[in-house]
């Protein structure tokens, strides 16, 4: 053992190496599963509500803008 090697690293049990992509896929799958299980039902309709209110706001702003430009 040379003076630069850490004894803890040498004594640590070797784990099976997994590729980065398979690990990130597993993490992504775990996160997405957690997101679906942790999202309360009241929040699931929130996206649709937000999209609808944003669309209404954009349309209202367009109408007001046109009115100011025309006048």
Number of strands: 0
Strand percent estimate? under 5%
- On the 0 to 100 scale, the average pLDDT is 67
Find the structural class using helix and strand composition. Answer: mainly alpha
Q: What is the radius of gyration? A: 27 Å
Biggest sheet statistics: none
Query: Low-confidence runs (pLDDT<50, min 5 residues)?
Result: none
Q: What is the ordering of alpha helices and beta strands?
A: HHHH
Shape: elongated
Report the total helices: 4
Q: Fraction of residues in helices?
A: over 70%
Q: Termini separation (Å)?
A: 85 Å
Explained architecture:
The chain is built from four helices and no strands. The protein has a domain at 42-71. It has helices at residues 7-11, 20-38, 41-44, 46-70. Helix content is 75%, strand content 0%. The model has no long low-confidence stretch (mean pLDDT 67). The protein is mostly helical and 71 residues long.
Entry keywords:
elongated; mainly alpha; 71 residues
